[in-house]
Every structure is written in C-alpha cells, then in structure tokens.
Amino acid sequence: MKIITTTDALAALCDEAANEPYVTLDTEFLRERTYYAKLCLVQMALPGKGNDRAWIIDPLAEGLSLEPLYALMRNPAVVKVFHAARQDLEIFFVDGGVIPLPLFDTQIAAMVCGFGEQVGYETLVKKIARAPLDKTSRFTDWSQRPLSDAQLKYALADVTHLRQIYDHLSADIAKSGRAAWVAEEVETLTTPDTYITRPDDAWQKIRTRGQSGRFMALVRELARFREDHAQSRNIPRSRVYKDDALLELASTKPESIEALGRSRLLLREARRGDIAEGILAAVKTALAADPATWPRPSGDDEQLQVNPALADLLRVLLKAKADQSGVAQRLIAPTSELDAIAAGKRDVACLKGWRGELFGRDALRLCGGELALAARGQQVQVIELAR
Fold first, then answer.
1. How many CA atoms lie within 13 Å of 94's alpha carbon, on the beta-carbon side?
2. 19-46 pLDDT, tens digit each
3. Rounded distance, CA 301 to CA 209, Å?
4. Phi and psi dihedrals of 285, rounded to 5?
5. Fold for domain 304-384?
6. Which of the 8 DSSP states describes residue 128?
7. Could you say which DSSP state residue 326 is in?
8. CA-CA distance, 231 to 113, in Å (whole number)?
9. What dotted CATH number matches 199-300?
10. Greatest CA separation found in the chain?
C-alpha cells in the first residue's frame, strides 16, 4: 500500500502524473462536526491496472503541503476524473482555491450514456469493471490514525476501478458525439459560485410554502445570521438552529429573551449568548425592513396556472425522448420544469442547449399543436401534424 506522507513524495508523484492523459481522484472527509469539510484522504490512480499505479495521499501527515497536488489540478494537459465530483471539488476549492480542470465526472457521463438516474459508483463498477466492491468501511472515521489495511484498500478501490469506467464512458461519449453535452453539465461543477454560500442568499435554500413577504423577510434575516455564525465558527448550521426552528422563529417573531425561551424547537444553547442575541437582532432587522425590500416567497412557483393535460403530455414526450436517446429523464428535465412549460413559462433549462435539441424544441411544438403522440406497441412515437 503506497501512502504519501511528505511533500517531496507528493511532488514526485504529481510530476509523474503530469505526463499522463488523465488521473482518477477521490477524497475521504468528515463534515458531521464542522461547516467546512475536513479533508482526511486523497486517493489518486494513474492509467494502468490493479494497485500498482494507485496511491493514498495523507493530508493529515505532519508537514505535508498539498500544493503539488493543486498544481496538478491546474494542469490543462491532464484530465481529472471523479465520480459525483461536487463534494470533492468543494473541498479543493475551499482548501486550495483550485477547481480541477479539465474535469470528467463519471456520474454525469453515465447518465448521458444510458445508465439511469444518478447512477452510483458501485453500480458502474459491477456493470463496466465487472468487479465486486467491498463497502464495509463506508462509515469509517477517516480522521483517525492509523488506518487499517482494509480501510485503505476500500479507499483505493474508489480510484482503481474508476480508470476502466472512464475509458469505457469516454469512448462511448466520443462515439455518440455527446461530448458537448457532458461539457455543458460539467460547467456548473467548474463554476466557483457553485461552492460559495453567501449569507445574504442562504434564505433561498429554506423550504417554505406560500408565506407573506414579511414572513420571508424574517426567514431571510434568520438564515443570514445562521449562515454567517456557522461559517465564522466552522460549525454545522444545525448546531446553530435547524430549519424547523428557523421557520418557527419566523412565525413567532420573538423580541425578547423571555419570548425566545418559549420556543419549542430551538436548542437550549441557542436561547442564550451570541446565538440568542443574533436571533433577536435578525428579528428586529426584519420587522423594520421596508416592504419594498421583502424577498419574493419561494412558494410563488406553486401558484403557476399549470395545464394538467399538457403537463401529462410533456411527461410522455420526455419519457419517449429519454428512451430513444438513452439519457436519464432527470438529466433532461425535472418535473418542475415540465409544469413551468405547461404554465406558459419559457425561461427553463430544458429548452436550452443540448436539452433544447433533444427535448425542448419538440416540447414547444407539442405545446403549439404541431406534434402529436401515439402509441406503437411498447413505444411512443412523435407524429408531426400537417399545418
């Protein structure tokens, strides 16, 4: 088992990797007790077979700098291959200010290649690499040292099989001419804003239902304080207060410590000290806000005047297009976008880019009465109507 624990050894490995067409990567981390993920392991493999060209990098080793790895991440000549890369990329962006480019995400590629909705790594290992995957170490505390051979073997498997999966999927995509589709999907992953949660925008992630503008102003200020407090102290949001407590506070509008103490859902630690003061200040700010600055309730989308018959037809069309193309339905268009189209909206993602080519154009033609759908045995056919 090759474990990298010094900066010199890491630099030598990354120099070797810089001469390869691609590297496969994965991380192990902890996030249960912190706001930002704590990086505990990095696994990397170079083209080859078995574990001969696979390494464990220990970022917790004393004196180890990850700068040689970050330099490799910036190298445009080497493709960085991940599976379901979002959390891995967030760690590299937060820790090193770097986003690996060029990037290949095998989960996205698999959805384009007909492997279904958000296919897991284990499924791809079975279907493409034809190998079993031992998941007994899945719930390891990766910050503990030393790690056992079984744990290290488990970690390496996440990059060794990934080489064969990448070879298979990249060849499939090149053959189908869908490289631009994958690149369009990866673009979101390589945008820095994807990994930045600004306190001012935190309210947008709170699920509410058709509430008033004043209520949403309270949600905004309470979410802003919670995000800022959690980030500055590197603790989970839930350690400040959970979403259900936030919504309760937005409803009850406590303006004193006594009123705060009557909360049913607020943690005991949040009823005093900095958190309590922050809550009361947030409530005060929200109640004093000009109505013109109140945020738009997220529940407004539920008021769309959806044509249910048209929405059903769009679902049938989507299934037909997904079956014909082998692309996962969810990747093409979520149900919310179909409802938006059926309500007359046109600024939706599935009407643009490759989704527009595959589905969106025909969706609009169906809405305009230019297309019809017909069943032919087990298949749904799209029929062009004469004008």
1. 17
2. 999 999 999 999 999 999 999 999 999 9
3. 10
4. -65, -45
5. DNA polymerase; domain 1 (1.10.150)
6. I
7. T
8. 38
9. 1.10.150.80
10. 74
